[in-house]
Design goal:
Elements lengths: L19 H23 L8 E2 L9 E5 L5 E3 L2 E3 L4 H10 L5 E6 L5 H13 L4 E4 L2 E2 L12
Parallel strand pairs: 1-7, 2-5, 5-6
Antiparallel strand pairs: 2-3, 3-4
Length: 146
């Protein structure tokens, strides 16, 4: 093991610290932090929809999402509860079909849902639909007479 001395004199030992491995570790940690932060942001508005046997895709209207954390979204835009009616009126004014599709988390209380749907009616919604996930492995329509 070679030890270098400053200016070749007979003084004490001089050690050089190599910070390249430390820099590499910090860069790896930064990349891991950036990836996990983006995943956490994407999953912030997760809604656990109730399941139903008979579902049909709905592509028109305005989507109102109510999360388990009592957050409201109108067409994926975060809206405070006090501004829900103006936001719904504006969103319904931009679509032809005056349908509000309610996506509520499975843990949403019935009273909260009724209040939100009442605000939707006051904002000008003609129809209201409730979003649900199809039960996997179940037929779309139950057979009649069984």
């Amino acid at each position: 093991m070679a030890v270098s001395t400053p200016s070749g004199g007979g003084g004490g030992m001089f050690w050089e610290i190599n910070i390249t491995p430390l820099t590499d570790i910090f860069l790896v940690l930064l990349i891991i932090f950036m990836v996990t932060a983006s995943v956490m942001i994407e999953s912030a508005t997760h809604v656990d929809l109730p399941q139903a046997q008979n579902t049909s895709p709905e592509n028109k209207g305005v989507i109102v999402t109510y999360t388990a954390n009592h957050e409201l979204f109108v067409n994926s835009k975060d809206v405070p509860e006090r501004d829900l009616e103006p936001a719904l009126s504006e969103a319904l004014g931009r679509v032809d079909a005056k349908i509000v599709i309610f996506q509520g988390d499975r843990t949403v209380l019935l009273g909260d849902m009724v209040k939100i749907l009442d605000v939707a009616k006051a904002a000008g919604a003609d129809q209201i639909a409730i979003a649900a996930k199809r039960i996997v492995g179940q037929p779309a329509v139950a057979p009649a007479g069984s």
